[in-house]
Amino acid sequence: MKRIERLSVYRRFLQEIAGSEPGSVYSHELAEKTGVTPAQVRRDLMEIGFAGHTKKGYRSAELVAAIGNYLDSPEGDPVALVGLGNLGRALLPFFAGHHPKLKITAAFDTDPLKTGRVICGCRCYPFDQLEEVIAEENIRVAILTVPAAAAQKAAGRLAAAGVRGILNFAPALIRLPKAVTVETMDITIALEKIAFFARRSGDES
Amino acid sequence: MKRIERLSVYRRFLQEIAGSEPGSVYSHELAEKTGVTPAQVRRDLMEIGFAGHTKKGYRSAELVAAIGNYLDSPEGDPVALVGLGNLGRALLPFFAGHHPKLKITAAFDTDPLKTGRVICGCRCYPFDQLEEVIAEENIRVAILTVPAAAAQKAAGRLAAAGVRGILNFAPALIRLPKAVTVETMDITIALEKIAFFARRSGDES
DNA sequence: GTATTGCTGTGATCGGTTTCACAATTCGCG
DNA sequence: CGCGAATTGTGAAACCGATCACAGCAATAC
């Protein structure tokens, strides 16, 4: 659902301005800074049961807490990174320490040259130990950055090992039981789409 | 529009199986392999004006051509990559030679250590030369992988230089005239969303 | 105290996508 | 040739998210 993404965005903005503001925000401010309409902000906050105050807006600190309470697992979630190619290795520093609730705690690869070490505070295991480590660390969320040809198989093993959500960067269709959430970020397709619209909009060459 | 993405996906599948199949596909095959419904495939192809044959499906080679004709600019599009951090550098080999129509032909960074060389066949320029190079190479599409704080400014310069479509990886809201298409791929937010659904679906711990 | 302002909460509405469902068509087979 | 099976093309309906528009209310001004 799109609302979840917007809540994340609201939270990020609120955290950015934390301290430097009067302690409350109006729906129209949040909307403006976040690229949506004020009505949508109000509707979103209504849906998570967070009430503002007429004429005073929403108390920022409490709103951040409410969003966190709604979105996050209280203890935080350990995340597995599967595939240490260029993209996988780039993602490690992206998350290293940056997120209070989501931490990449285990990485996997088939290449023995890459396993055994610790990169950005994350231990790298051989692919074989996937089930074992995921069970041990109680991992429920994974990022998949393996080649397309290996994606479905890896995803299947992840799901079987107990993973319930996968962020897939491989340009491949992943088919899993509906109990597992899969979101594919296909960079090539996104770029093709953008090139398409770029060509259409106000073509003035 | 979502249809554009699906067309890309259809095409990819068709190219994967090119040769190894009887020369035509049914809507239900395409649907099955691509994760959508047969009706949607038919509707999508109808919308781009591609007709199939009753009982024989769609001629694959012609369909690939029709999709290409609809999606791609005939000569292909040069793409700029702005920001050579971890993610930017990971993206270069991703596209290097892999796509017939989209090629990253210029990269930019402020760090003089990174500029001046050629990585994966792509020349790296200092950030100052952005306008110049974009005009010279007639670049209309860009990938933005700079830190969030620099994103809006860089996007503004790109747009002013003539770029009409931006794939933004920075976790920041980009505000540009509507003639410029901006698509933000926010990895952190995608992961937060997945963690949210992972926690909800069939919570059996 | 009363009027005015301006913000929240939300029922109603709108617009775009997806899905349904079926007529039209073609092929294979007897 | 004509029947049955299978597939396309598409109008109509259903669905879903976003937007509108306004009632209700709290703060402030006078």
What separation lies between the terminal Cα atoms of chain A? 39 Å
The most extensive contact between chains is: A-B, 60 and 60 residues
Q: Level of helix content of chain A?
A: 40-55%
Look up the CATH topology of the largest domain in chain A.
Rossmann fold
User: Can you identify the CATH class of the largest domain in chain A?
Assistant: Alpha Beta
Q: Just name the CATH architecture of the largest domain in chain A.
A: 3-Layer(aba) Sandwich
Report the oligomer.
Answer: homodimer
Task: Characterize the structure shown.
Chain A has helices at residues 2-17, 27-34, 38-47, 60-71, 86-95, 130-137, 148-161, 187-200; strands at 24-25, 58-59, 77-82, 102-109, 118-119, 122-126, 141-144, 165-168, 181-184. Chain A is α/β, with parallel strands linked by helices. The first copy, chain A, folds into two domains: 2-70, Arc Repressor Mutant, subunit A (Orthogonal Bundle); 77-190, NAD(P)-binding Rossmann-like Domain (Rossmann fold), CATH 3.40.50.720. In chain A, the strands form two sheets. In chain A, strands 5-6-4-3-7-8-9 form a seven-stranded mixed β-sheet, sandwiched between helices. Chain A has a two-stranded antiparallel sheet with strand order 1-2. In chain A, α1 runs antiparallel to α4 (60-71), α2 (27-34) packs across α3 (38-47) and α6 (130-137) packs across α7 (148-161). The longest helix of chain A has 16 residues, at 2-17. The model of chain A has no long low-confidence stretch (mean pLDDT 96). At the A-B interface, α1, α5, β8 and α8 of A face α1, α5, β8 and α8 of B. Chain A binds a DNA duplex (30 and 30 nucleotides) through residues 1-3, 26-28, 36-40, 42-43, 45-46, 51-58.
